[in-house]
Amino acid sequence: MNFKLFVGLLIAIGFTLNGCGPVNYSLKKIPDTQANRQAFRECQHTLAVASGYDSDGYRRLFKDCTSTIESTTETVQINPENNPPAGCQMIQEYGNFYYFFCK
Q1: Residue 84 has what DSSP assignment?
Q2: What is the pLDDT of residues 24-34, one digit of tens each?
Q3: Within-domain flag for 58
């Protein structure tokens, strides 16, 4: 009986610890220039006319397209939707990836 209780507690603790860890958010900060705005619009257009992808495929397509735009990327543990970086405006969100135009 004690062994079953011990195993049950280990399983419960394992599930609790697995779901309660910190969440990492990736921020892509794009300098707010006319050229970058145009490039970002082209990525949005590419995504809008794409077909035949699943949700991961669309996410990958958008990530590949935006990787060609001059930017910096950082990882934070505070949700940037509620706490955006100073001088930045959120323009797109895909899961835990957030895209910002920054001055």
Answers
A1: P
A2: 999 999 999 99
A3: yes
